[in-house]
Amino acid sequence: MSLIPYAEVRHRSRSRVISVAVVVLTLVAAFLATTALGQTGVPAASAATCGTTNLAVNHPATASSTENAGTPASAAADGNLGTRWSSAFSDPQWLQVDLGTSQPICQVVLNWEAAYATAFQIQTSPDGTTWTSIFSTTTGTGGVQTLNVSGTGRYVRMYGTARATPYGYSLWEFSVFTTGGGGGNTVTVTNPGSQVSTVGSAASVQISANHAGASATSV
Questions:
Q1: Whether residue 13 sits in one domain with residue 118
Q2: I need a surface site. Which of 2, 95, 154, 204 has the fewest CB within 10 A?
């Protein structure tokens, strides 16, 4: 009967342990990455939620006109509800914000002063020249209007065509929200597959997974 050297037995044992660890940890990572699946089997990433950060704040804002120097377009995109933009007393008028890069728009919030629009559109544009309407109404109510929309563009604007008062259009704040920038669930496997370890040296396996802002790492 031939005897297997102790060092080789130890080496084989370590290899088996590492192989089992790889399988187990891979399954754990896969499980974590799929917990975002709904009961219908549709990944949560396909129905991304709207963000809560107003991207319009402190981005360049321009308008078709201003009532006076105290009500510039920038006052509707400064995050300050004590300042406002107001336009000339005629139709149509518009206010637009340059977000800097193309963004997936999911919500626009209009915080109107008493001089609001009864008819207006929310439009997006890739270049500030060609516009696409993503919302339209002829029954605007004034106050704070939260509009759930769907569109993409670098520029977003309110295009007013009918005023509720003899004055112009006036907004305390023009807020734009976008969908999250996440690309879905991520699973990272470091040192996968066969593992070779020299007897007496350290060996490690690292597997990490994250989803919906949560993460887990196993070593």
A1: no
A2: 2
DSSP percent split of the chain into helix, strand, coil, nearest 5: 15, 40, 40
Flag whether 67 is in a domain. Answer: yes
For the stretch 14-41, pLDDT in tens is 555 445 444 444 544 554 444 444 444 4
Pairing of strands 144-163, 85-86: unpaired
86 and 16: one domain? no
- Range(s) of the domain holding residue 98: 51-178
Contact predicate 100/59, CB 8 Å: yes
pLDDT digits (tens, 9 = 90+) for 194-218: 444 444 545 444 444 444 444 444 4
153 with 109, same domain: the answer is: yes
> β-strand 117-125 against 144-163: which pairing, if any?
antiparallel
One domain, residues 144 and 56: yes
Do 15 and 106 belong together in one domain?
no
Q: What is the distance between the alpha carbons of residues 60 and 78, in angstroms, rounded to a whole number? A: 10
Residue 36 near residue 185, CB atoms below 8 Å: yes
